[in-house]
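new request in #modeling-help
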Amino acid sequence: MTLLALVALPFVGAILVALLGERLAPSRFISLAAALAEAALAGVAIADMSGRIVPSLSWAPGGILGMVPLSLALDGLSAPLVALTALLAVVATLASWGIADRPRAHHALLLALEGAVMCVFLAADLVLFYVAWEAVLIPMYFLIGLWGHENRKHAATKFFLFTFVGSAFMLIGVLAAISGTGATVLSDVPRVLTPSTQRLVFWLMAAGMLVKLPAFPVHTWLPEAHVEAPTAGSIMLAGVLLKMGGYGLMRVAAPLCPAAFAEAAPILFALGAIGTVYGALAALAQTDLKRLVAYSSVAHMGFVLVALATGTAMGFAAAMLVMVSHGLVAGLAFFLVGSLADRTHTRHIAELRGLGGSVPRWSTLFVFTSLASLGLPALSGFPGELMSVLEAFKAFEWWSVAAVAGVLLAATYNLRAVRAVVYGEPVERWASLADVSVREMLAAAPLVLGIVVLGVWPGVVTAMTEPAVATIVQLVQGGVR
Amino acid sequence: MTAQSAGLALAIALMLAGAIGAVLLKEVMRVMIALGAFLFGVAAMYAYLGYSFLAIAQVFVYVGGVLVLMVFAVMTARRADGERPAIVSRHDVGSAAVAAGVGAMLFLSLRTAFGDTSVPVSRSASDLASELLGPRLVAFEAAGVFLLAALVAVAVILKGGEER
Amino acid sequence: MTSFLLGALWGVVGVVVIAGGAVIGVWWERKVAGRIQLRYGPQQIGPAGSLQMLADVPKLLFKEDVVPSGADKPLFKYAPLVVFAPVAAAIAVIPFAKGWAMFDTAVGVLFFLAVPSIEVVAILVAAWAQRNTYSALGGLRAASQMIAYEVPRALSVAPLVLLAGSLRPTDLVAAWRWWWVPLLALAFLIYLISSIAEMNRGPFDLPEAESELVAGYFADYSGMRWAIFMMAEYGAIITTSLFAAATFLGAGWPFDGALGVVALIVKAAALVTLVMWTKWTLPRIRQDQLLRFCWTVLVPAALVQLAIVGVVLPWL
Amino acid sequence: MIALAVACALFSLGLYAVLSRRDIIGVLVGVEIMLGAGSVLLASLGAASGASSGSVQAIGVMVLLLAAAEAAVGLSLLLSLYRTSGRSRVDELSEVSG
């Protein structure tokens, strides 16, 4: 019942905002209250999680398609991401505090987005998973298309085309999986897919998930969508939506098609490695600060793919760590860049110089974020990336040098951004810039805290993930089902 | 040929002819008509399989909603430039091969899963109303509300576009 | 095979009924309009001009089939047929007597409501095919209006479905009680208004507004193809009125059997006259008024009616 | 089996349109066909497996409504894109700037 409430609460909040939030103040207070309540509920749900996938709610089970797909489950694989979603939704609400243009619709859509994402992470049923996966996109298109920057329509249309094509593949993949296994519930699969069906189902599903991740050749929607999205949209997009891709691979694609997953590992590794290097190089070349952060997302999500491709328990744990860490870091980075751009009305790196003197608190946070992003030990980026490189070395030997190059390049582009934006001669133009406000500090605080905790004590996530991952890894390494 | 198989043949012919037309034709309004035939064929297929509610929902939502919106888009967007509107495509063997390959793979893999069931005969839909008015109504209504919200928001976007 | 042939037979019957009804409807509209404007209307051919259409139909048939040079020929030629076909199809689910319709299906009500969707596409295509600014404008107006008014129209039928607990039109007839009339008076009114808007007739005839758009979405049509548009319009009046008479007004009540069918037709004819009366007495409204009226008056009112029925339902 | 073959053929056709069309509307038509193929697969699968008619239709309608809502949103975005820029080619969307 808690899980159902976890999915329903944001939607109820969205409806309340839509009904009562005629003016600015009530709309943002109601949505903040809903986001906080959701976070508390997520805490409760995770605290009494049993650790196994047991659908907590299902209606009238029957044969194939013989039920309405409403079964939810929470386990170690979904718990970190559920927590991340709940946290980032609060941050996103605070980040969009100042939205004056149709605040009611903005906050309602943000809450609806949170609810749909929760549903993706909690779905224990393939059909529900697919429906929620699709439902996530609709509020996101609107957030980008209505509250974005100058080129928002362009970006939203591109985002739409990529994900819509991906979802057509996903639908067929899901149906093929259902017809092949004879079940829609993920945990209880009566029949094993034949190898050829596995290959097909895996690649059909991966087509949708790699677009979302985003992996190398299909990442081109991401920089534009990020750059044009409003701050709250960027936070949710980078922090949560990208994780749906990695989560989908771990939760659905790998366990359903373990043999195909093992077979595809080198390709996934190659895509991931290219992503890390390419993303980092592209980030180095950017002149727009938000675009730089966007390309760094491509690089980080490349690590997720590299870690996943190893197919080991450590690799899966590393992938989860990188995802959670990236959610926190990218959320904070987009939050900072967004709040800076709101004040300076430019995101051009060349124009933003010497901010260290004029906005010290902002600069401190930005330096902190960059350090976390480049993987400084004791911050959240470090353990995940280290683990994924080590695992990749075991699995792919010298090929993993590419991933190491990605780590080094991450240091380069992050430090370049810090040097360009924070250091240097203070500029007259930014002398009277307002520093980070108390509200913004409050919003950033949990993310900073999370980054430090995860850096010092990664076990908080890996311990949760371990039992859930074990069964999947067994399947993948066994190669059959 | 029985009435049953005649219905199936009609549905399949509509779907295939419509899809081929929508993919290959150049004139944009004819593409839309072909797409309409395809969507209608899908509805006919549903009806043939005994899913009459789904068939009508298909006509309602796709033919009456999506297709009209597409034709709308074509009519308001394309007339301005004065030239005869055409959808440009780059017909290369590569994309045809990829598409055909994916389709063939799909068929070969799913054939085993599908088993040797031939196309099932249409069944009665008499239990439908009670089933739909039962507990499933909730999920169903939620989806409907979702669609309505999306359509309202569409109107908002379009209005925003006009003001610019 | 027999069922297939039977379906085809009923299809032919439906088209003939609609076409015949349309011919009578045109004559009747001219008489009604004449009375309202203090003149006689047609009166030369046959008693009270009743054979006027027998003279008009051959004229239309023999007129030259003009296709504008810029038009998209195949689309121009066949779009009118697609405008007409769904109207003729709608008659199939109308319950003419207790337990009898040409095509008695479990989702007949939805079928009846969904059919105009196809007409919208056909109207847009016809409007586009003429390559004429007036017709394009008329087509866009027609489509936006028809899509918008589909919502209150469907909502106004929903209370009937709730009360009868079925989507089968014959079930609606079977479940009908006389007190539905006062209970559903609001829904009936909404159904009538939104149906009039749905068929693009006055006072909602903006898509074919003669004074601004010539003849709107069929400006460049003439002869028999023009007549098909007219047949579609009158066919829509007839099916709408028949459906309302059968479901809201209790079909053949208080009679049964053949007399019941007569009663149904009389009720429907009265509704047809009401629709015509509306057109000839009310002025045309503006586009913004049209859409605002739909969303701010009709839809909320329909929801209120639905809520009332929802509250009453458990007590019945 | 016929239904499966038809669905696969439709999927191929839609994919071909997505790959070959240069115009966003053309691509969108292709995706619609791919999704339609998916729905045909869903329906024939449901019918072949003997699942209850109501549940297949409930799932079918949910998929249908979602896809339609997405298509509607995408089209409205596209429409306002046309109005503001007058461009519609896919290639123009893929340019990398900045």
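bot summary: Chains A and C do not touch (no CB pair under 8 Å).
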